[in-house]
Amino acid sequence: MPTSTGLLTDHYELTMLTSFVTDGTAEHPAVFEAFARRLPEGRRYGVLAGLGRLLPLVADFTFADDEVEWLLEEGVVNDVTAAYLRAFRFSGDIDAYPEGDLYFPGSPILTVRGTLGECVLLETLVLSVLNHDSAIASAAARMVLAAGGRPEDGGRPLVEMGSRRTQEESAVAVARAAYVAGFASSSNLAAGRRHGVPTVGTAAHAFTLAYPTEAAAFASQVAAQGVGTTLLVDTYDTAQGIRTAVEVAGAGLGAIRIDSGDLADESADARALLDELGATDTRIIVTSDLDEFVLTALADAPIDGYGVGTRVATGSGHPTASMVYKLVAVADEPRGDLRPVAKKSHDKVSVGGRKTAWRRYADGVLVGELFTTGNDVDLGTGPDVTAVQVAAIRAGKVVHSPTLQEVRAHCAAALATLPGPTRSVAAGPSYLTVSQRPSTDTTEGDHR
Predict the structure, then answer these.
(1) In contact, 350 and 328? CB cutoff 8 Å
(2) Does position 267 have pLDDT exceeding 70, yes or no?
(3) The whole model's pTM is what?
(4) Is 158 helix (H, G, I), strand (E, B) or coil?
(5) pLDDT (tens digit per residue) in 118-133
(6) What's the domain count of the chain?
(7) Statement to judge: residues 289 and 327 lie in one domain
(8) 36 and 63 in one domain?
C-alpha cells in the first residue's frame, strides 16, 4: 500500500514528539543542523547530493488519516499527538549548501528552523536522503576524476549501471546522484523519466546466448539498432567476437563492450585487432567491477568509456557519508529567544548555535571554510569570501529548485576549486578543517 512521507521515519521520532506535544514543548522555536563529524577514512572531501529530492519531500511531509489511526492503535502516539499529526505541515525554514557542493567535517550542510515538533519529525527523512545520495555522489565524483574528468573536459564517459545491485527506488536515486557528480548517463529508465538523466543501453550476454550463433545475435542487434550500436564481444571468445562484430556491422561499428578478463590487456589487444580490421573509429567500452582505483590503473589503456555498476551503487564502492542531524538551538517558551545547545559526549561533540558558513578562495582555489554562530553572520562579501548556504525553504514552501543540469554544473565548478593533489584517489586527511570564528554575539535572538 502507498506510504505517506510522514511514515518514512523512525519510531522514536514520534515518541519524542508525543512528549513534546503533550507538555507543550512542541511549539518552542528550535534549530536543527545536518553535518558530518568526519569524512570516511582516506577521503579528502565530500559531495553533497539529494537536496533536490529532499526539499519536495519535506514540503509534502504529511500523515494520512488511516496512518494516524494505525499509529494510535499501535500505541505509538496519544490522542493529542494524533490530532497534531492530522494537521501537520512543515511551516519552517531550511537553509542548505547547494546540491553538488563540497563539504568537510563540521560543514553546516543543512539548517532547519521552525518549532521543535516540526523540526524533530524531519530527522530520519533528512538523513535517509542526504546520507544515501551524498555517499553515492562522493564516490562517483572520485570515479569521474579518475576517468580524466567529464567528457566535455576531455575525460572518458562513465555510464551508471548499478540498478540490479540495489533496491529498486534506491537505484533511481543512485542514477541521479551519479549524474550530479559527473557520470554521463545511466541504464535506469526511471531516472531518465523522473529526473532527465540521459539513459543508454544495448544488450547483455543473454541476448547473444539466445541465438544459435554470435553472428546471428549481432546481425539482429545491428538490424534493430544500426551500425552505431555497441556489441558485447566476450560471451565466448573476445578476439573472435571482435572479428564477428566487424564482419557483421562493418568497419563503421560504433563500439564494442568487454566485460571480463584483464581489462588493460584485453583493451590493448582489442584496439590492435580493431585497427587491423579497419575499424579504427570503433570505440572500446569496458565494464566489470570498476571503481576509482581500477579506473586510475586503466588511465593509459586504449579505452573510450566505462560502465560502473556495483561499486557506485552499493557499499562495496563507497563508505557511508555518516551525516547526523542535531539540535543546536532551542527556546524555553513559545516565541522565546533561542539558546545554543550542544552535545559534549566523548567523540560526539557538537557546536551549539545557528550557523552561517563562509568560504575563502585564492586564485580560484578553495583555501578555507569557517562558520559564525547566532546573529554574528556578516563577514562581508568579495572575490575571496563567499557565503555558502542558500535559502531552500521559506515558511514551508520550496524556494530553491535549480534544474538537474544546473546542479551538475555547480558540482563540476565546486570540484574544480580543489587543488590537483586533492582530486586524486590517494588517501589523506580531509582537505579542510572547518573552523568557527569567535562570535561577538552569544545569543541567538531568533524566534518564531
Answers:
(1) yes
(2) yes
(3) 0.93
(4) strand
(5) 999 999 999 999 999 9
(6) 2
(7) no
(8) yes
